[in-house]
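User: Hi! I'm working on a homework problem where we have to compare a predicted structure to a textbook description. Could you give me the structure for the chain below?
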Amino acid sequence: MPETDEAPILRLATELDQSVDRKDWPTLRSFFVDRLAVEVGIVAGDGASMMDADAFVAEVAAFNPPRKIACHSFLNPLVHVTGDRAQFTANRYGWNLCDGFDPPLFETWGRIAYGLIRTGDGWLIDRFRLEVLREAGNRDVSRLREG
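Assistant: Happy to help. Predicted structure tokens:
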């Protein structure tokens, strides 16, 4: 049975989360075009910023050093495909744990949205957005940055 357009996009979003949680930066980089719009406050500030994908991945890596454990998941994903463009949206939950802090846990709830473009090698993200709805715990855990 052939895959629908939605299946590879859902797989990409799942593998993206896993690559961050496992600190697999080359795999994370493989999901992006060379230059993308980033709307993630801790990385890009307010609003959208155009970033080189290598710089974006380096920032994500800096906020996820080896001593910080991360777990990301999404719920209620929706995929909308129009030709060679797609939109992925979902509710987001994530936590960071770092034993060097008291308390050691930070949690966040929000919404994610990825704009995607179909290439000869499959779908790639050209817009990455995180809207934070609620945070709890030790914000210093989230802000820990190395590199």
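For your comparison, note the following. The beta strands are 32-39, 49-52, 69-82, 85-97, 105-119, 122-137. The radius of gyration is 15 Å. Good luck with the assignment!
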